[in-house]
Amino acid sequence: MQPVTILLVDDDASVLQVFQHVPTDAGFEVHTVSDGRKAIHIIWAPPIRPGKG
């Protein structure tokens, strides 16, 4: 089963640090970005699957 991935987006790095800990500690995979354009790029990019390259 694939881990659930959460994307946190905020332009304040300290906010990202604070809010990243809770889901990470709960076992979620967390990605953080500080820019809306980067977030959209991540959302629309095809997923990377291990062993498929």
TrEMBL record:
Q: Which InterPro entries match?
A: CheY-like_superfamily, Sig_transdc_resp-reg_receiver
Q: Which organism is it from?
A: Rhizobium mongolense
This chain's protein is named CheY-like chemotaxis protein
Would you say which domain of life the source belongs to? Answer: Bacteria
Q: Taking every annotated instance into account, which residue ranges of this chain make up the domain Response regulatory?
A: 5-53
